[in-house]
Amino acid sequence: MRWMRKPSKRWRLTALVMVVVAAALLGAREAARVQGGTGAAGVDGGASHGGSGSAIGLNQTYCGAGVLGVTDAPTDAISAASRDQQDQTAVALMHEQTMPPTLLPGGIKEFILTAEPVIWHLYLDKNVHAWGYNGQVPGPLIRLRVGDTVRIVLRNRLPVPTTLHLQGLDISPGLQGVPGISQRPAPPGGSAVYQFRVTTEMVGTHAYFSDAQRDLQIDAGLHGVLIVDWASSTAQSPHAVDALFEIGAFKVDASPMENVFTLDGKPAPEAPQLTVHIGDLVRLRLVNNSAECYHAMHLHGGTFWLVDEDGHPLKHPLEMNVISLAPAETADIEFVARNPGTWMFHCHIMDHMMNPDDNVDDMGGLVTYIHIEG
Ligand SMILES: [Cu+2]
User: Fold this and answer.
1) pLDDT tens, position by position, 203-212
2) 59 C-alpha vs ligand 1 centroid, how far in Å?
3) Is the pLDDT confidence value at 244 over 80?
4) What is the distance in A from the centroid of ligand 1 to the CA of 294?
5) Domains of the chain
6) What is the distance in A from the centroid of ligand 1 to the CA of 60?
7) Distance from C-alpha of 374 to C-alpha of 337, rounded to nearest angstrom
């Protein structure tokens, strides 16, 4: 039969070329990964540290695999007081404590974000060489009002260029932070300015993050949250509690995939926990600043309502048990605290609920608790 004949010389040559090209492409991809990992001081993937990810690591279906991540810092690299300070920063972020602006002539509100290396404590004795804004991961919460003229100054204290992307804000292309497309990145030691007027279309919960070397820089800690409120402050909020849980991720132990997940910068058991009172109408603002992974956040003890997605209110809120969040997606959910007790709030992707060095029943990663007091 014709198809069983020995391949022609021309066909064999074509096949050989295809194999060589495929091998070259794979090699280039690997080289790019290594370059991404080692090209940035403090966040290369060169140092390996014991465990290589969680016990259940088959998460390719909902996570990508990108450049290698952050390296370990010594156990004693930060003091107990600094660790406590980091935990307090996470709690303050959960309670939506905001970064105060500097008022410039003309009423311009200026916020300065300094991208810089920081040693960040994750869990047990795991400290990493992260990159943060203003010495914290995630960066400070920026809160704006409709009508504000805002000037965000990005100062670059990193060894590589960086930019800032303000997700979902309708601002000019030159302020979108896309290096090489619409903006020159801020070089090491340099800065970039993002000035714009806040419009009604911007009201809601938004993510910000680095848009240079995205996979590397975001998962090194360069991300945060921006909230825009209506101009009027006279309207009384119906929410007794308004809280923020920002999801972040790191790649530790030379993992090519995200393997430490954080709420407001900290994985369980150090993720901040929220206390509310019975009868409270609670709004949780959720922001997925993982560079690679979807998350499926679930609240025990009752259903909740999805009221706002990506800063846009839903005409018909949805009653849900699990909310899926794509990378850079935001969602506001609401619930009434009806049942006293301690209720788990967690990602339902099971290996996002543990840290790389955990035993299979330990709680880590995207786990926290909401305490409803009578
Ligand atoms: Cu998850």
Assistant:
1) 999 999 998 8
2) 10
3) yes
4) 6
5) 72-229 (2.60.40.420), 241-373 (2.60.40.420)
6) 12
7) 10
